[in-house]
Amino acid sequence: MMPSSVLLLSLLVVAEPSAPDVSGVPPATAPANASTSPQFHASPPHKMAPLAPERVYAITFDEALGLAAEAPSVAGAERAVSVKSEGNSKIGLLTSNPSLVLQPGFSTRDANPRLEGEVALTQSFNLAGLSGNRRKAARTEEQQLRDEARAVALSRRLDAAQAWLDMWAAEAAFQLSREELGLAMELAARTRRAAEAAALTRADAADADAYEAEARLASLSVEGEVTDLGFRLAEMVGRATPLPMTTSGELPMATVPERAAWPALIARAAALPAARAEKLAAEADRARASEARSARGLDLQLGARAQRDSTGNDVLYGIVGFTFPVFERGHREAATFDAAAARRAGEAEDASRRAVTELARAFHEVEHTGEVLDALEKTLVPAAAESARLREAAMRAGDATVVEVLVARRSAAAARARELRARAAHAWARAKVAMLVALVPTDGAPDAAARPSTSAVPSAPPTLRVSGAQGERDGQTSAVPSAPPTLRVSGTQGEGDGQTWAVPSAPPPLRVSGSPSPDGRDTEASQPRSTGVTP
User: Fold this and answer.
1) Please, are residues 275 and 355 in contact by the beta-carbon 8 Å criterion?
2) What is the pLDDT of residues 506-529, one digit of tens each?
3) Pick from 355, 410, 366: which is nearest to 388 by CA?
4) pTM beyond 0.90
5) How far apart (Å, rounded) are the C-alpha atoms in residues 11 and 197?
6) Where would I find the beta strands (DSSP E) of 200-313?
7) Separation between Cα atoms, residue 455 and residue 472, nearest integer Å
8) Strand 114-126 relative to strand 246-247: parallel, antiparallel, unpaired?
9) What is the pLDDT of residues 111-146, one digit of tens each?
């Protein structure tokens, strides 16, 4: 290359001897803030002011699940079970109430008119099994409500887990983009100085400026994503907040059953709460149909009647009566319930098949996202980082242009963003499997609906074991920052080179270093938590 490459080297490299690798992020033990990380200092007027601190509500993954279990919809479903159970406990053995009839009279049969009258007391007894049928229908309705409450709680915890992991992914990508934007600003400033010194052309300076502009646009676009996900997280955990929530703590990596146990668990997935609730709804309609028929069945009336006539004589009678189901047998009411039961039976079968398919898909997602993450960690990310490093080394030696370095940096940053999203997707797949499997009955265990319980939902969400470092899966875990930065953001999500970038609108240029992993790559302290979307 031309001798001006020596001047280019002094302006672009020597001025910052420890230029950061785009693959570096803070280690899990380092607080994710600017005060503990080395910063680049761009020349005015390109220096950006730090974000204004805001009070936000940061929660861990387990706290998100706990808050979701206390959401109003879940609490309402639990109260419905309690109310129904209390009402069922008060159902009496008799299906009708006693009847008292008073018949006062006045006799004028002689010159001395006198009072006379009758009193009758009767009680009906259904002989068609109405008492047992109504209690059976009530118990089935209660169990249906109980399984519906379990299904509501499970759905809410899954939504909260997905929202937390999405937010985690956006915040981790946000930290990565802050670093990339700082590097872009520094490179653009140095390139302009080199162009002014005639070491580079104005076209090279324009390319660097365009790179900085792309980083800024990506920064603006991710603000909206982080804001939307923060408010969505608050919604999923049932909290009304004036500011978006953020995440704290480690990325969860739930323990998944061994591969050999998957077929048996999938076969029993029809016992998951949502599917069971549909089956119980059909059973409840059939029980109500039987109740309607027995209500019009054979009925026995027993009682007594006392009479006092105008002469003062008292007469006592016994009463025995029958109501025969000759013309009215409850077909009108029973037909409605029978039709509803037939429809519900089909819906219950659909729900059972959906439950089986959903668990099978969840197991597949664990494998698929794990394979994607392996490929990114072991091939794409290291290759992209090495390419960027070599391009920069070649530029120092005069064998590469600024454009080639910019392209390599952009590719490395995009690969890192994909890895962050993939790690969150894998964590989501494992968390979903853990929560579903926790509600599948084990072999030989009694049906979940038959187990005695005072609560409509499990008392605690499944425990998700978290700890470890980058790239650990299948029983291992990934490390994330214990205290993510407090941010106030707005905007929409942007994509660069086919990959989503998460960046702030005006972060301070900074460089964060990572701790080396056994394979020589930096570990990530900030990791994404995307929800089931495969990168």
Assistant:
1) yes
2) 333 333 333 333 343 333 333 333
3) 410
4) no
5) 10
6) 246-247, 299-308
7) 36
8) unpaired
9) 677 778 899 999 999 999 999 999 999 999 999 999
Give the CA radius of gyration of the chain: 36
| Residue 67, amino acid | L
Q: Which helix (H) or strand (E) holds 496?
A: strand 494-496
Query: Which residues is 116 bridged to in the sheet?
Result: 105
Q: How confident is the model at residue 99 (pLDDT cuts 50, 70, 90)?
A: very high
Quote the DSSP letter at residue 450.
Answer: G
Per-residue CA distances from 2 to 9, 204, 392, 395, 397 (Å): 12, 15, 17, 12, 11
**Strand ranges for 147-262 from DSSP E:** 246-247
Beta bridge partners of 303: 122, 319
Question: Is 220 in contact with 41 (CB distance < 8 Å)?
Answer: no
Q: How far apart are CA 105 and CA 158, in angstroms?
A: 72
**Tokens (6 digits) for 499:** 């990959």
Q: Report the Cα–Cα distance between both ends of the chain, in Å, rounded.
A: 39
Q: ∠12-18-20 over CA atoms, to 5°? A: 90
Q: How far apart are CA 420 and CA 442, in angstroms?
A: 35
Q: Find where tokens 């729900």 sit.
A: 351
